[in-house]
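Notes, Module 5: Reading structure tokens.

Key idea: the token line is not a picture. It is a compressed description, and you learn to read it the same way you learned to read a sequence, by spotting repeated patterns. We will look at two proteins. The first is printed below with its tokens.
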Amino acid sequence: KSNLSLEDIDYIIPHQANIRIIEAAIKRLKFPREHVVINLDKYGNMSSASIPVALDEAFHTGKIKKGHKIVLVGFGAGLTWGANLIDWSL
């Protein structure tokens, strides 16, 4: 719906539930791992807080810059999921 391709995405920030799930998604998408924000090793699964915490860390460490396209994606029990695209303007 955004008329963007995967190559237009600067970072993906997934829900930090399980490293095997994240790695499988990266492999399936053929997306560069260095452009996926992962902090699971620092905090474990923080449930619904994992995406905003990872986004905040990525911004404050200088990974995310003005004009970047960022995909946030979460999933949960019962095969529920959601995703959004952010055009970072700060």
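Here is the second protein, with the sequence above and the tokens below, as before.
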Amino acid sequence: MSPDPLYDAHGRRISDLRVSVTDRCNFRCQYCMPADGIEWLPRDGILSFEEIHRLVRLLVGMGIEDVRLTGGEPLVRRDFPRLVAMLAAVDGLRDLSLTTNGYLLERHAAALVAAGIQRVNVSIDALARDRFFRITRRDSLGQVLAGLEAIASHPEVRPVKVNAVAMRDFTEDEVMRFCELARST
């Protein structure tokens, strides 16, 4: 006998799950983290890949169909493509996606695709290098765009989305740059 499906307080069936695989991040975005960082959770305070796999497997048995892997920054987690492969093999999981800042995406794109990632969402808050630096406190726009290009070169990963946080009086004029990026790629 399978467990009862999950429902929220409004009676809607819950079919998607976000799993934060780490609290660590290689950026220090102004809206997310202080410039000097935060105190990280101890390693034993983070679920192991086996624990995440077991949890996802149990929740899929209760009606979860879509899993999004998040963080912190998931790609800073050692051997992250191995976790993707473990979850992609869960019977009944329909969609496995990743939200990332993109910095390490070029390095891991092929391994993520081989492991079974299906969709990717890359957070990029600005396409002007100086603004990107002011937001993330990292001069890494080139690496992020290279990561976006690397994952987009794999047709089996679709859609590839770009996510941005709009900030009044700071990134409003970035809208046209994002429109051009969408149009050109």
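Summary for the second protein:
- The beta strands are 16-20, 66-70, 95-100, 119-123, 160-163.
- Helices lie at 49-60, 80-88, 105-115, 129-136, 141-152, 174-184.
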